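REQUEST ID: PR-0412
SUBMITTED BY: lab tech R.K.
PRIORITY: routine
TASK: structure prediction, single protein chain
INPUT:
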Amino acid sequence: MVTGGTRGIGLAIAERLIQRGFSLAITYISDEKSAEKAHQHLDRLTGGDQPILTLRGDVEDAKVVAEHHRTIRKELGSVSVLVNNAGIMPAKSFEEISVKDWDETIRVDLSSTFYWCREVVPAMKEMKFGRIVNISSLAARGVAS
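STATUS: complete
OUTPUT:
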């Protein structure tokens, strides 16, 4: 399971998981074209032999995360590897960041990680196996000038 897995680092991680034989679920928020392109690319890598779920929805919404998790469990089984990759950073100076921008950034970058971990950890404990990777960015170290 890779959040934000249709472009950039998330897609590269999804490629590696597919190459290692994992069934895969990736999430995205709205870019249908990138999502379809990513799905086709990953499907070509497998020759169509491994299941790939491409799930649209907002990771900052706990209900959406729970729904995606239910879909994954039904279609692929329990999640053994979770990569929390989805993240945003307002392209604004510190003085220009609004409270709304801040709250959205916290929900996407932090709350979504909690929501996904809360969903997958019980099954990982039951399986006595699981890996969680939380991706961050150097952008977290500073503020745009």
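NOTES: The chain has a mean pLDDT of 93.
REVIEWED BY: pending
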